[in-house]
Each structure stands twice: as C-alpha cells, then as structure tokens.
Amino acid sequence: MSVLTIMRTAVFATILFLLAGNVLAEPKPWMKKENPEELRVVLSVPGCRGDFEGVVDGALARARIKRATNSNPGELLAVVEVLCLDIGAGRYAFAYGVHFGRILSGDGIHDNDIVVYSLSGAASVGAIPDSAVGRQQLEQTIRDYFEKLLADYLKANFDL
Q: What is the spatial distance between Cα 11 and Cα 92, in angstroms, rounded to a whole number?
C-alpha cells in the first residue's frame, strides 16, 4: 500500500468521523442577525468539479438574501464544504457539510478561524461517477441542504 493511499484513507476516515450524524436544525435564537438581508457564505470545494458557486448564489437569489463579502467576528455565516477525491475507476469519493458557523475572533491571530455548528446542518459521504450526471447529483444534494439551511435562517430572522 502506497503512502499516498494511506494518507487518502486517513483523510477520508477523519472526514467520516467529523461529519457523521448531523441533522438540520429548527430555527434557534442564535440564528438571528442584525442585518438578516445579507449572509456570508464560506464555500470550500477542493478537488470537486461542478458549479457549487452557482448553486449557492442561485439559492441566495431565490431567498432574496444578498451574499455578504465580509462578516464581523461572532457574526453568523453559512459554511458549505465539499471535498472530492479521485478513487479511480471513473469514480470520486465525496464528503460534504452544510452548516451555520461564526468567525472566531478578529484578534489578528484567529481571523480566519470558523466555529461550525455541526448540529445545525447536514453532512454525508459517498461516491459518484466522474460524469456530468454524477456532478449534477452532488450539486442537487448541496442545493437541497443549502436551501433547507436558508429556510431555517429565513424563519429565524423574518418570523415566517
């Protein structure tokens, strides 16, 4: 077994452990924002092919929420992470998480550190074919969960 295979397996196993068991939350008081018309979204999609930027921007547009470019320490934000790994034979393993979070601080040391509320979102792992259909399926999954997260955000901030 090569070192690269061992490293891939270790990374994938860690992701499985971290993402297991999450469910979407009902609106909570901590989901409220002072400026609810804007929401920062941190999007990370290493190794993935697909239009995840379009998925996020489209869902925000339908919800009439502007995508904020910055946020202050402690301010609520959305975190969308999708990790893809070529496992050969025309397939990709994936792990995703769609959650609420907050920037930890603005102290100059931890400016980019984000606390993720793992029980406020959804996460899973799996494998897809390296094809347009596989990418569309993964994009649709992320769209569905991001829209559910936005629905909770809208309920919490706009008394729907």
A: 14
* Cα of 95 vs its chain's centroid, Å: 10
Beta-sheet strands, E only, within the chain:
38-44, 66-68, 76-88, 91-103, 114-129
d(CA 3, CA 98): 30
The Cβ of residue 159 has, within 10 Å, a number of other Cβ atoms equal to: 7
CA distance 142 to 6: 28
Half-sphere CA count of 80, side-chain side, radius 13 A: 27
**pLDDT digit string, tens, across residues 5-64:** 554 554 554 544 444 434 445 677 888 888 999 999 999 999 888 899 999 999 999 999
pLDDT in tens, 125-155: 999 999 999 999 999 999 999 999 999 899 9
Q: What is the DSSP pairing of strand 76-88 with strand 38-44?
A: parallel
pTM of the predicted model over 0.70:
yes
Phi, psi of 4 (to 5 degrees): -60, -40
Please, what sign has the CA dihedral across residues 79, 27, 58, 131? positive
